[in-house]
Every structure is written in C-alpha cells, then in structure tokens.
Prior knowledge:
- Helices cover 37% and strands 18% of the residues.
- With 329 residues, the chain is an alpha/beta fold.
- Helix 2 packs parallel to helix 4 and helix 8 (231-253) packs across helix 9 (269-277).
Amino acid sequence: MTVILYIIFIALSVYIYTRPTIMVFKYHHISPLPENNLNYRPDTFDRQITYMLNQGYQCISAEEMYFQVFLKKKIKKKQFVITFDDGYLDNYLYAYTILKKHNIPATIFLTTSLIADNDQERNCDNAVMKDDNDAFIESLKKRYESYLNWTEIEDMHKSGLIDFEPHGHYHRYIYVSDKIEYYNIGKTLYESFKLKSLEDNTIKIGSDVFNSGPSLAYRAYDPHTRIRETDWQAYKRFVDEIGISKKMIEEKLEKHCDFFSWPWGKFCHSSVNAAKYLGFKMIFTSYPGTNSRFTNHFYIKRFNPCLNDKIFRKQVKKFSNFLLSLFNR
C-alpha cells in the first residue's frame, strides 16, 4: 500500500511539474537612465525579449491569455505576457520601438488622470544616449517623469500590438486611520502621489501625516471629522474611480476594456467586487508567481523580470512550471 501511494505521489508530482504555465512580466519604465526596480534600459528590455523568443517562448496578448485561463483550455507550452503599469512616455519612446521590432503584443495599464495634454512639451529628440552631459540627462529625466498623451496612445493602439487598459484614475494614497505616522516638515514622497484627505485638502508643512494607504485598497479616514467611510461608501468610491478610467479609455479608443491592474498592486475584497461589477474579465495583481488553468482569473500573478541576466534566466525556469512557482517567496 505504501509503495502504491508513493508511486501515485511521484506520478502526480511529475504531472504538476510538467504542466505548462503563462508568465506575466510587469514593467514600468524603459529608458536609458540608470536601472533600478522600476527602470530597465532599452538594451536590457530587448535582451530579455530576445532571450525568451530564442528559447521558443511565444509572447501572447492579455486577451489570448484570458481565453486559455478562463475557458480552461489547454495551455500551450512556453508562453508569456508583457505588461506595463502607469503609462509613461518612455513606453512610447523606447519600449514600443522594441516591441515593433519583434512584432509582439503588450498591454499598458493607464492611470487616466495622469495622461498628458497633447500640447505638452515632449522632449522627444532622438532617444539614443550618446553623451552623459547634464543637459541630455536632464532631458531624459523629464521624459522619465512624463506620461503618455492621447496622440501617442492612439498611435500605439492603431498598430494592433498595444492594448490599453485601466489602472485606476488617480493612483493616490488616502488616510486610512487616526494614527499619526509623522509630521510633514517639507517635501515628502507622499506629495508626489497627491496624498489628500477626503475633503481634498493638500497637506501643509507642519501638519500631521496620518497612516495612509492606496485608495483602492482601504476605507478612507477623514482626520478633520474623525469619520471613516462605511463599507458601502468605500465600495461606491471604488466603482466610481475604476469606472472613470474604464469609461475614458473606452470612449477615446472606441474599444471595450476587459482587463485591470491595481495601483501598487494593492486591493481589498470590496475593490475586487467593484471591478467585477464593472465587467472586467481578468484582473492583474502584483503577487509574484505564474499562472495555469487553475488560476483564478481575477487574481492573475505577475513578476518583475530581474535586471541580472543570469538571475532572469533562473526566474524564467522557475516560473515556467507550476510546481516550482509555488515557492516564489
């Protein structure tokens, strides 16, 4: 009996180990500036894609992934999906060029309140780093901090390679409790994320900075009135904020939005229900891991490809099978 159970265990392990999966890469910036966990140089991005294609992997769209995961179809071996969060200008200047070169699809999740005006200065000179002079570096930094405008979005959308989906409208933090974290003594990280109270008052220097969190993951707290949102109020706010971004993209691009990704990868049960109510077919998280026929399509896993080539290849090997991907932390 023990031998039979052992054989069954081995057979089941081999079956699970060899099950094909779909990896989802998560990027933000592609630019010639120094690399970090949010920024990849164009040559690094190109090298990662080239490696995947040379290894026999097929880059598929989010829509193709949906039909395989949701409809529980047999997943073909060696597939991956490319996603970008926020919608930065460098996605157009650098990433798009490389994607066109390889003729592969990608999905860009847009923060719609940050989409640039079409008449905004773009600093779109030849995007090749030739000199490390201060002026050129400053120009790169301006591009890095800039977001796509609708002209650039429409240009990529018409190519048929790039799909645009919502990433929420505001991408901001809100107060979530009466606990004071620190006092605002000057410019802080939160200012760039437009941290505001429910009354939309900007934080003044010297004022209290309360415990805060992503707006689509928590009920809001107003320190001025000491009132916290009810579950229903929070749910309505989630529907409104996600719905604004969905409607804006659908109207501008004359398409239907089926997919969504969470700002900072943070969400709660209520915000997931809000996204379901709005009709999204598949939701992308920032949970590291890979995806199989057994994956819940409202909790798609993604990971940041490692900048180091050797470790990146180990990542690909790890996330290319279901069993190894379970040990992702």
